[in-house]
Structures are given as structure tokens and as C-alpha cells.
Amino acid sequence: MVGPNGIIDFFLHPTFNFITSSVTNPSPIFNPLTGTTVLTPSVGLASSFGIVWAVSFAPAQAGQTLGVLPTYEDRVFDLVVTHTLASGLVVVSQRFDTHESNGILFWENLLPSNVTIEVFPHFELTVEWLIGI
């Protein structure tokens, strides 16, 4: 029998077979992303579990290594997740950067206030929300 902690953990961190990606929910993401993009607080940002990304364009000089999933010598993007405390103080709760061509990122703490993505020059990134089904 699953205890209450198992049920709570299931809803806070569902398994892959209960997660799908969406460009419209919790709020539209207009792809591809370039430069700085702020995924602002919205009714739905709290309902996302993270993001999934894929490089839609990379410059030839990015130093792509061949393989099943290419990796770039150049950094593809930086991501910063912030949370607003009850006092109004905004704190950075998660930082992430990658050289990978695609991947998945779960929020370390749910209910983010803001997510800022800085796509490095000459890259284009396609991003979708991770939501429960």
C-alpha cells in the first residue's frame, strides 16, 4: 500500500509516462527563442513541472561533436528560475546551463515566479512546457 508521502511525491514529481509537452499550456511559448526570454508569471506557470528543449538552429562554428545526440563546444543557453517569498524578496532557486542539443529540465522547487532563458548568440531554441496529463 502506498503511504501519503508516496501519493504527494507522485503529484509533485510524476513519472515520465504521466508527463507530456505543450507549447500552449501553461502559457504560450512563441518559438524559436533567441536572446533573452522571460517566461513571466502566469496562472499556468505554477502548473508546469519544467521544460523540454531542442536546438532548432546552431551556427557552423559552434563546434558540434558527432554522435547520437550532438553536443556543442559553445554553451547553448542559460536558464534562471526565481521564486518570490511571502516577504516579497525574489530569490534565485535554480540555475542551469548546457551544451547539449536537446534535453529535459525539471524544476527543483515547484511554483516558480519567473523563468529567464538566455539563448546564446546565433543559436535558436525550441522550448515546450512539461505538464501532467
Distance between the termini: 23 Å
Q: What's the overall average pLDDT, rounded?
A: 84
Order of H and E elements: HEEEEEEEEEE
Counted up, domains total 1
Task: State which percent range the strand residues make up.
Answer: 35-45%
Task: Point out poorly predicted stretches.
Answer: none
Radius of gyration, whole Å? 16 Å
SS class: mainly beta
Describe it.
With 133 residues, the protein is mainly β. The protein has one domain (4-132). Helix content is 7%, strand content 43%. It has one helix at residues 4-12, and strands at residues 19-22, 36-39, 50-57, 64-65, 71-72, 77-84, 90-98, 102-106, 114-119, 124-132. The strands form 3 sheets. Strands 1-10-3-8 form a 4-stranded antiparallel sheet, with no helix packed on it. The protein has a 4-stranded antiparallel sheet with strand order 2-9-6-7, with no helix packed on it. The protein is globular, with a radius of gyration of 16 Å. The chain starts with a helix and ends with a strand. The model has no long low-confidence stretch (mean pLDDT 84).
Secondary-structure blueprint of this entry?
Blueprint: H1 4-12, E1 19-22, E2 36-39, E3 50-57, E4 64-65, E5 71-72, E6 77-84, E7 90-98, E8 102-106, E9 114-119, E10 124-132
Antiparallel strand pairs: 1-10, 2-9, 3-8, 3-10, 4-5, 6-7, 6-9
Summarize it.
With 133 residues, this protein is mainly beta. 7% of the residues lie in helices and 43% in strands.
Keywords:
133 residues; mainly beta; four-stranded antiparallel beta sheet
